[in-house]
Amino acid sequence: MTKRLTPLVAAAALFACGCTTVLKSKEFGDVKTDGGSTPVAAVEIENSVWLLFNFIPLASGNPANPNGNWCKLFRNTVNLQNNMSVLKSEMGLEGVTTVANLTSHYMEENYLFFLLARRACHTSAVLVKSDANDKGKSK
Q1: How far is CA 135 from CA 70, 73, 76, 138, in A?
Q2: Adjacent-strand bridge partners of 130
Q3: Domain spans, the chain
Q4: Residues facing residue 116 across a β-bridge
Q5: Which tens digits make up the pLDDT trace of 39-57?
C-alpha cells in the first residue's frame, strides 16, 4: 500500500504546487460607493499550501511573486500577514491608499484520508479612490 501512495504523493506535490494568485477586476462603470469614493479595482488574493499529514509543508505560494510559477518548497507562507502584503502591493500598483469591504478567510481540503491537505487563505477587497481627497489635492 505504501509503495503505491509514495508516487501519488510525490506527483501531487510536483503538479499541484501551492501558489499565490491575484485576480483583479476593474469593471465598475461609473459606480460610486458611500462617502463619495470611486471603486478602482476589486481584488481577490489566494495563497495556498500543500501539507503532508496535515502539518508538513510540501509547497506553498510565493507572496513576493504572485501569479508566478515559483513556489516555496517545504515552507508554509499561508498567513494573513502575507496576504496583506500582497494587497498593499496591489494598492501601490493602482495608486490608492484606501480599501472597502476587506474580508479574509481560511479554507482547508483533505485528500487521501488526511494524508494530503491543501490550506488556503483568501483575502478580498475593493480598492477605492476618494473623490474628496482628490479635489483637495488639486487645490
Answers
A1: 42, 48, 44, 5
A2: 37
A3: 2-138
A4: 52, 111
A5: 999 999 999 999 999 999 9
